[in-house]
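Morning F.,

Quick status update on the modeling queue. The single chain you submitted on Monday has been processed. Sequence for confirmation:
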Amino acid sequence: MTFGEKLKQLRKDNNLTQEDLAEKLYVTRTAISKWETGKGFPAIDSLKSISVLFQVSIDDLVSEGDVETKRTLDQKKNRAMYLAAIVFLVLATLFTLLAYFLKQPYFNIGGSAAAVLYIVFAMLSRQPYKKDSNVKKILLPYIISRVVVFLFVIGVIVFTMVTL
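Structure tokens below.
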């Protein structure tokens, strides 16, 4: 039985609507619906509250399959963020090239905005790291690569503004 099925059963056994449960857990009804259908997974704070409310252990609520589901949802989110980062990097490059070849510095505004959004989405797309000794070895090159690309794009934008 999945977490969503367990939650739904516990909710119904206690004669609660999704709205009632959401109110008790300080979340939205939509969050409850997502949890019950397996389209989302609660944060640890909510898991603790559910455990206390229904007087069951967190272990009873969460099975190995639920952990895998959460991991899959996180991977999908990370892929979407990574794709958005790539799109904004391409847009930053495109705007910068347009500014340079068309001699229109106003395109650099779009290039700058896209470069900033690239960094935001690139940082959001990172994989959560496990606690181990390799975190610093993995994290530092990750951040440096994002910053180098960002600085390169900003440098090209500044260059095109100066040469126009």
